[in-house]
Amino acid sequence: MHSEKAQKSEGSGAPHRFPGLFPAKEEPLSPFYTMLQSAPPDYLTQRDEPVDFPPAFPVYYFFYGSLTTPAQVKRILDLPEEPPLREAEVFGYAIAKWGDYPALINGKQGQVVTGSAYLVRSEEEAQKLSYYETNAYEVADCWIHFKDHKEPNEIGGKVFMYAGDAQALLEQRFDRKLWNRQMGGKLG
């Protein structure tokens, strides 16, 4: 149980989850601050507006495993030379192990996964990457934050996420969801 003192921020009458954000007690609260008092804890860190993720190519893909190596991307995409990759990160995700392989799953708010981003130029490149990743992963929209101080510094893009049951993966137990996906309904 939280005490009333823990619920309030230093005499402001505001919830403790936004410390320092509210004016001193003697100042009247604006309608904005009043609204924040009843907002969910993650209100300020979640994007409410829809993000327009690129529907076509070129589009940045965020990589977090073996694809962070330019030589590996060159080999998979059959490129004439190693491609430029940008240092990047995504927020709100975590890495779990699927055997020897890293698998991106939804994480806790504020968790960060670092990796690289590559500008996928065509549907053909996207298909080659999907084939490499297998059907254990699915393409999902993400928000990519670049760490290289070049423009753009953030952009909507794509990422390969684990397609199975993340909880089963974390608990290292049989993943019926992934098994069904890989078997394609062949066994029942």
Please characterize this protein's 3D structure.
This protein is of the alpha+beta class. The protein has a domain at 59-163: Hypothetical upf0131 protein ytfp (Roll), CATH 3.10.490.10. The protein has helices at residues 4-7, 31-37, 70-77, 123-133, 166-170, 176-183; strands spanning 59-63, 86-91, 93-98, 101-106, 112-120, 137-146, 154-162. The strands form two sheets. The protein has a five-stranded mixed beta barrel with strand order 1-5-2-6-7. The chain has a two-stranded antiparallel ribbon with strand order 3-4. Mean pLDDT is 79; it is low at 1-18.
CATH fold-level label of the domain at 59-163: Hypothetical upf0131 protein ytfp
* Spatial strand sequence of the major β-sheet: 1-5-2-6-7
Kindly report the name of the CATH homologous superfamily of the domain at 59-163.
Answer: Gamma-glutamyl cyclotransferase-like
Biggest sheet statistics: 5 strands, mixed, barrel
Name of the CATH architecture of the domain at 59-163:
Roll
Question: How large a portion of the residues is in β-strands, by DSSP E?
Answer: 25-35%
The CATH class of the domain at 59-163, by name, is Alpha Beta
**Strand segment tally:** 7
Shape: globular
Protein name: Putative gamma-glutamylcyclotransferase
Keywords: Transferase
Organism: Aspergillus carbonarius (strain ITEM 5010)
Family: Belongs to the gamma-glutamylcyclotransferase family.
